[in-house]
Please model this.
Amino acid sequence: MDRAKIARRLVLGALAASLLTAPALAAPAKPRVAIETDKGTIVVELEDKKAPITAANFLSYVDRRRFDGGQFFRANRAKGAPGAGSIQGQPKPYSRRAPPIAHESTLKTGLRHKAGAISMGRDAPGSATADFFICASAQPYLDAKPGKSDAAAGYAVFGQVVQGMDVVKKILAGRTDGATNVPSMKGQILNPPVKILSMKRV
Model:
């Protein structure tokens, strides 16, 4: 066999090997969602491997356009700490909701309520459907702790803001004298609420 043929085979072999190994080396990208509001755009990256149930549920609402026409209705500001707290969003009014999802504890996922975390709103553990909140600051008291009470179960983080924290802060700073029949939310209801114009994968 002449040298030209040997060289050609070596090149082809190396190319085939690189094609076989490249997908294994490149980690699949985490899904991202752009939340377009009338105050600006927030982009979140979802932890679909660490919190697969919660991330898939959120993406299901996004893909069905259930959040389009929704709103950020609540700004829960931390007392005595300007810029600290969280904002809460929900689908458009009367939007059909899927059944509640299983609770993915931060003790199992390893995720934390740090600044920029996106997490699920809920009543009892396992009751979350579509309401979500974004932390404008670290809120470690929302993480799960060993114990059997609802409070110890914490909330389910499933992603992180990668763009638009300035928008989160702007929403948090909004006027909050809206009406509510929930005593614990008095002084936290945005007036007016911030419109969610669209939510889509990017």
About this structure: The domain at 32-201 is CATH 2.40.100.10 (Cyclophilin). The mean pLDDT is 90.
